[in-house]
Every structure is written in C-alpha cells, then in structure tokens.
Amino acid sequence: MKSINSVFRKHPELEATGKLSILGESRCTAEVMDAYMRRRNPKIPKVAELYLRLGQRYEIRGDVAYCQMVYETRSWTAQVTGPYWAPMTLEQWATESSVEVLMQILYAFATELPVPQALDQTRKQTVILDQAGWRGKASCWQDLNGKWTRSGHHYGQDIVAIWRSMLEWKGSGEVIPMEEGGVMGNSQEGERLRSNAAKERITGSLDWTSFCTEEMSWLKDKGLLPSPVPHPERKVSWAELANLLRRWEDRPSTAAIDGNGVSLKKEE
User: Fold this and answer.
1) What is the C-alpha separation between 167 and 161, in angstroms, rounded?
2) 21 near 143, Cβ under 8 Å?
3) Is 89 exposed, middle or buried (0-12, 13-18, 19+ CB in 10 A)?
4) Whole-angstrom distance, CA of residue 44 vs CA of residue 53
5) Cα–Cα distances in Å, from 87 out to 125, 159, 187?
6) Are 54 and 150 in contact (CB under 8 A)?
7) Among 21, 1, 2, CA closest to 13
8) How many angstroms separate the Cα of 246 from the Cα of each of 155, 219, 254, 267?
C-alpha cells in the first residue's frame, strides 16, 4: 500500500508544521538582499555576502539570518539588540567574527550536534542554552519565540515575514542615493525613511510598508489599511475586521450594467 505521505507533495522550504527550518540553503542572492534592504535604509552595511558565506559554512539559511539582523537592528537604527541573555551592539551584526558566533548559536539551537570549530564566545552562549534546556530545541525560526526575547511570541514569524517579502520582491524601486556626509536625500522616500527610523527609535515598533505582500499592497492601495501598516501576519480583531468591511462597503463606486441588463456597482 502506498504511504499516505506520498500523496502530498512536500514543500521545499517548510516543515510539516508549516514552519521554516533554521538549517537549509539560502534562496536569495547577496545583490537582491542588499538592494532590497537598502531601499529601507541606505545606511545598512553591505554584509549580505558575509551572511550567505557563513550561513553556508554552518548549513544555516544565511538569507533568513540576514533578515534577523534587519529585524533586530530595526533596519540599522537600534544601538543595542540581540538575545536578552547576550546583548549585541549594532556593529556586532556586521563583523565577521560576530556573525560567525551568531551562526554557531543558531546551529546550537537547531541541533544537538557539537558546534563545528566553536569559538570561545559561542561556548559561553551554548552553556546558557544547555542550562535553559534549549539546546537542539529550536529547529525552526518560529521556535525561537520566547527563547531569543522574553516576550517574543511572534519573533520568528516576524523574521520569516521579512524573508518572504524579500523573496517576492521583483526588483522595483531604486536604491536611495545618499548625500555627502551620509545624509539621506531629500526625496519623498528619504523623508519616509527618516520618519520611520525616528519612530522606531522612540517606540521600537515597525512600519511594515516596505515588507507588504501583494495582497497587503492591494489593501493599502484601496485605503483599507491603517497607518502605519501593520505586520502582514498579525491577527485581526473582530472590531478591525468590521471596520475594514464597513470601509469596503462605503467605498466610492459607479453604476454599471452587466450583459443581462442588471444594475451592478463597480469600484472606481
């Protein structure tokens, strides 16, 4: 009898649970990663190739780890980030030795196997993982919830959402040039970046405008999303759903007639 598992085609990236594994191959190129993220903040250092190279060395999805860096640093605006049990400065997300420690810690989360050529800093962190009972207990990015940050109930989902958006990006939009002295240009996009960066430093929240999926962008174009744009995978309350449906019902429309002479309403 044919196994029931053979009836279903396995997704090339996701586990059976629908989660994204920490171990695996990268899907994005360094050029796409750099260009995509520098649309949000031109001051983000070009370290995509470093994440891909070290990710490949430890069989970690380097492109997702890069998105973790973007999320943790709030697009390179937060000064101190990292796991609550091992804070990292902004620069530590961009040096080769520190990124290698990051990959080794992710490896220790994902598997109980000894970390290959573990660095001294990694050994100190894996002791914490062993004491907490987390060693090898986070095979997927979503499993880092509550382990990387104390209140990170959507920590892994947030990182994966950025990665999925980067995968779906078609290359539209230009990298924003920087003026002399490292100041963003005076374009409308530059002003938006400055506003977002300032808000993120004050509130610690993200405006997900740059990470919208095609469906989210459609809602945004129709004026049906709140501002700032919420996380693509955030749950919607009944009140928010009712508000969205009411706004959709009250949207401007024009009369139209179908082939049978029946009057219809057509969105403008």
Assistant:
1) 10
2) no
3) middle
4) 18
5) 11, 18, 35
6) no
7) 21
8) 32, 14, 18, 15
Structure-token pair, residue 29: 């190129």
Tens place of pLDDT per residue across the chain (268 aa): 444 444 444 444 555 568 999 999 999 999 999 999 988 899 899 999 999 999 999 999 999 999 999 999 999 988 888 898 888 998 899 999 999 999 999 999 999 999 999 999 999 999 999 999 999 999 999 999 999 987 667 899 999 999 999 998 877 544 333 333 333 334 454 454 445 444 433 333 445 555 555 666 778 778 787 776 766 556 677 887 888 888 888 877 654 544 555 544 544 4
Between CA 65 and CA 82 the distance in angstroms is 12
What would the two tokens of residue 68 be? Answer: 């973790």
Sign of CA dihedral 33, 147, 208, 17: positive
The CA distance from 68 to 204, in Å, is 15
Q: Are strands 178-179 and 183-184 parallel, antiparallel or unpaired?
A: antiparallel
What six digits make up the tokens of 155? 């920590």
Spatial separation of the C-alpha atoms in residues 13 and 242, rounded to whole Å: 35
Residues 6+ positions from 39 with CB-CB distance below 8 Å: 173, 174, 175, 176, 189, 210
- Rg from Cα positions in the chain: 22
**Residues 137 and 146 sit within 8 Å (Cβ to Cβ):** no
The shares of helix, strand and coil residues in the chain, as percent rounded to the nearest 5, are 45, 10, 45
Q: Is 227 exposed, middle or buried (0-12, 13-18, 19+ CB in 10 A)?
A: exposed
Q: How many CB atoms lie within 10 A of CB 254?
A: 9
Place of tokens 């994005």: 28
List all residues 6 or more positions away from 198 whose beta carbon is below 8 Å from its beta carbon.
none
